[in-house]
Automatic annotation (TrEMBL):
The keyword Transmembrane helix appears for this protein: yes
UniProt KW Transmembrane helix keyword: yes
Gene3D superfamilies: HUPs
Name of the protein: YdcF family protein
């Protein structure tokens, strides 16, 4: 009985150690990519990943992403923008439509904006965007600039690479009200994506 209890303690310690080590490694990758800005890379398309709406109004997180696009587009007016995101239960329109309205309202030519309106996850954002891009562009090794919240860059780039893109990141600020919980939650999202989000 004592022997069994000793073994269970050892197993518990090993599991906790693995969790702590993986947490430190993954959070380090999240933080590193959150601070890395690839705005000077050669880009074929910009992909703006969806986030919550309040009715039809972009949430603070989504507005930060869109403002990053506006800042970037001032210097790169020839690049098409793919806005990604379907419609949630408490949203009046698709996230993609709301993003288009915001960008057009702030001076982006609507002919440069491509809508992806089916997705509800990060993986589907990128997967469905790829399908739309491939309808008119059959090149391999397409360079994309992922515009999303800073904590979200690492996972987005990982999934985009898995889906065949050459990904770069343009991180947007995470609002202070959700900063800590976003970084912690992202650890678990990365573990899930690693095993579940595949072609």
């Amino acid at each position: 009985m004592v022997r069994k209890g000793y073994m269970l303690n050892k197993i518990f310690i090993v599991i906790i150690s693995i969790f702590i080590l993986s947490f430190v490694i993954i959070e380090s990758l999240i933080i590193y990519n959150a601070r890395k800005n690839d705005k000077n890379k050669k880009i074929d398309y910009i992909l703006v990943l969806g986030a919550r709406l309040y009715g039809s109004t972009p949430s603070p997180s989504l507005k930060e992403r869109l403002d990053k696009v506006l800042e970037y587009e001032k210097l790169h007016e020839d690049i098409k923008v793919v806005v990604c995101g379907g419609q949630g239960e408490d949203e009046d329109i698709t996230e993609a439509k709301a993003m288009k309205l915001y960008l057009v309202g702030n001076g982006i030519d609507e002919d440069r904006i491509i809508l992806e309106e089916k997705s509800t996850t990060t993986y589907d954002n990128i997967k469905f965007a790829r399908e739309i891009i491939q309808e008119n562009d059959n090149r391999e090794n397409i360079n994309i600039l992922l515009v999303t919240s800073n904590y979200h860059i690492f996972r987005s780039k990982f999934l985009a690479k898995r889906l065949g893109f050459i990904p770069f990141g343009l991180p947007a600020k995470t609002p202070k009200t959700v900063f800590i919980q976003s970084y912690i939650r992202e650890y678990f999202a990365i573990i899930k994506s690693f095993f579940m989000d595949r072609n």
